[in-house]
């Protein structure tokens, strides 16, 4: 699993015909699931995300987690995070998990983040064409890959 985490002042996700989801201060998490991901990747990522200290403390040092600051999280599925551009200029997505594998892992990650953080958690719309708007705070953007454990 690969995530791109952005510290935001606000984020909004919409898709035609769907209710618009939004958060204030917190984390926008773009999540890519690949074919060899499983529940152990979910557990490792959840632990890392809810404890990630990227919010400023009273001295201006990034020393607080989203949970510490009472922030919210928005989790948006994004299979393009596993794009391969090795050959040519058109990305290939062969590493991205198919929906029958990805949806249960996506739903498990959302559920476990809610349980582990007690934060407000909202999502995008799996498999839909979405529009995501955000105000990046910092900017602070972190990329984490469960396979490399970094």
Radius of gyration: 15 Å
The CATH homologous superfamily is named D-tyrosyl-tRNA(Tyr) deacylase
What is the count of structural domains?
1
The number of distinct β-strands equals: 8
Structure overview:
The protein has helices spanning 39-51, 99-117, and strands at 2-14, 21-23, 26-32, 55-56, 62-64, 72-77, 120-123, 131-145. It has 150 residues and is an alpha/beta fold. β1 and β2 form a beta hairpin. The protein is globular and about 45 Å long. The mean pLDDT is 95.
List keywords for this structure.
150 residues; alpha/beta; D-tyrosyl-trna(Tyr) Deacylase, Chain: A; 6-stranded mixed beta sheet; two-stranded antiparallel sheet; 2 helices
Describe, in short, the structure shown.
With 150 residues, the protein is α/β, with parallel strands linked by helices.
Give the arrangement of secondary structure elements.
Layout: E1 2-14, E2 21-23, E3 26-32, H1 39-51, E4 55-56, E5 62-64, E6 72-77, H2 99-117, E7 120-123, E8 131-145
Helix pairs in contact: 1-2
